[in-house]
Amino acid sequence: MSGEDRNDFILSRRGLLGTAVWTTVGGLLPASATGAVMNSGAAPAAALKDWSAYVDLLKPAGKLNERTGFPQDDQIRAELYRQLVMNIAQSYIWYFQSTPEHPDWMPFENSIFLLQPNPDAIYHIAPVSGDGVYRISGYRGTNKVMGFAVGRGMFGTQDPKPGFNNYDADGLTLGKDGYFEVIFSTERPKDWTGDWRYLDAQAGDIMIRQFAYDWGVDVDARFAIERLDKPPLKPRLTQEQIAARLDAILGGFVERFSGICIGYQNKVIQDLGLNVMELSGFEDLGNSGEWPQKYFRCIYDYQPGEALIIETELPKNCKYWNVQLNDELWNQIEFGYRQSSLNAAQAKLDSDGKFRAVIALEDPGVANWLDSGGHMRGMLVGRWHGADSYPMPTIRKVPLAEVASYLPADTPRVTPAEREAALRKRNLGLQMRRRW
C-alpha cells in the first residue's frame, strides 16, 4: 500500500471505529439490530468428563468402515482411521481457535485437510454470526479466482444445506496494490460509504476461495477479519465451554464429517453407477445457487492393466477450469508429489482443441496423466467456472497397453525426465502458497 493509501485507510479506520459503541447499540449496527441480544458464541454449558469418557465418544466412528464399500480391505480401513485423526486436527481449529465474536481466518481444505479440496485452491474460513458487523480488509493478489462465500457453518459441523451469497473480490473497489476493505452485515452501517455486502441473518461462516493456475507464481491474497460491534478483548474459555466443545468434536464432528462424505459418494454410485458423468452444482453439500461454477463428476472405477480416458470440448469462454481425482473416502489424492489434478495452465490440449487425460496406475507417457496414486475407485471432479457453456466430458475404459491407439497421434507426450521436472515444479509451487 502506498503512503497516501495507508494514510487514507488509517483515517477512515479511525473515523469508523470512533463512532462504534461496544454495546448492542451503536453507529455501526444496522437499525434492525438495535437492542438485540448479541450472540455470545458460547457453547452450551456442559460438565467436564474424565479423559477416558472423551476417548469413548470416538469409538462409534469406527463403524463407518462398514459404509466404505470395502469393509474387508484393511488398507481402506487404515486410511479411514487416518481420516478420522485428520478430522480431529481440523475440528480443533474450528471449535477452539476462533469465535463469531473474535473471528480469525482458519485453514480449511488444503494439502493436509484432504476431504475434497480443489488442488488449485486455498481455502480460509472464519465463523460469523448473522447479527454481527464484520470488516474484511486485505490485498486481492493475482490468483485467477478470489471471492467470499457466506455459509451456515464449516462443512461437517452440521448436515449440509445450501449456502447463501457469493461475492467475487473483483467486484470490490480495489486501491493501489489491490488493497480492499468491505463490511459484511445485514444492513449497511450508518455513515459507511465504502464497499458493503449483505450478510444473511442465518450466516455461520464466511469462506474465502482462491484458485491459482500457476502455483507459487500467482500471488495469493492477504486478508484479515474483525468484528466491529463487539469489544476486541477475547475472554478466557470456561471449563464448561471447553467441555461442550470437546463433546462437539469427539462425539459429533469427527464421525459426521467422514460420514457425510462417504455417504455422498455412495449416493452418487447408487444414482449414477460407475464411470458415468454428470453435471452438478453441489448445492446439496452447501454451495450457494449463486456460485458461478458447474462441476462435472463421476465415480471412476478400474483395475490394474486398465486405464480410463477422459475427453471433453472446452467452453469458448471460461474464467477457470480444472479436473482432479479423489479416493474411496473422498480425500483428494496426493497432489504435491503426484499429478492427480490438472488445470487449464497445466494441461496440454490436442490439436483438435479438446482436452484428453488418462487415468492410470502407471505412467502412460502422455502429458495429461491423472495419477490415481494406487487408488482404483473414487470421485473425479472437474470445474467450469465463469463459463459460457458446460460441456459434459466422456469417460471410457480401455486396456492400458492400448491407450495410444485410443488417442490422437499427436497427443502430447513426456519423457521420464520431463515428468520428474514437472512434479518437482508442482511440489515447490504448492509449498510456496499460503496454506496456513
Structural key phrases:
alpha+beta; 18 strands; globular; five-stranded antiparallel sheet; 436 residues; 22% helix; 2 domains; single chain; 5 helices; Jelly Rolls
The H-and-E topology, N to C, reads as: HHHEEEEEEEEEHEEEEEEEEEH
The main sheet orders its strands as 1-2-8-4-5
Helicity level, as a percent range?
10-25%
Contiguous runs where pLDDT drops below 50 for at least 5 residues: 1-41
Shape: globular
Compute the gyration radius: what is it? 23 Å
Kindly state the mean pLDDT as a whole number? Answer: 90
Which structural class do the helices and strands define? alpha+beta
End-to-end span in angstroms? 23 Å
Number of strand segments: 18
The major β-sheet equals: 5 strands, antiparallel
Number of helical stretches of at least 4 residues: 5
Number of domains: 2
**In percent terms, what proportion of residues is strand?**
15-25%
Protein name: DUF1214 domain-containing protein
InterPro entries: DUF1214 (IPR010621), TAT_signal (IPR006311)
Organism: Sphingobium chlorophenolicum
Describe this structure in words.
- The protein has 436 residues and is an alpha+beta fold.
- Helix content is 22%, strand content 24%.
- It is built from five helices and 18 strands.
- The chain has helices at residues 3-18, 51-58, 74-97, 239-272, 416-431, and strands at residues 106-107, 121-127, 134-139, 145-151, 166-168, 179-185, 195-198, 205-211, 222-227, 278-280, 293-301, 306-312, 318-325, 341-343, 355-360, 369-371, 377-387, 394-399.
- The strands form four sheets. A five-stranded antiparallel β-sheet has the order 1-2-8-4-5, covered by helices on one side.
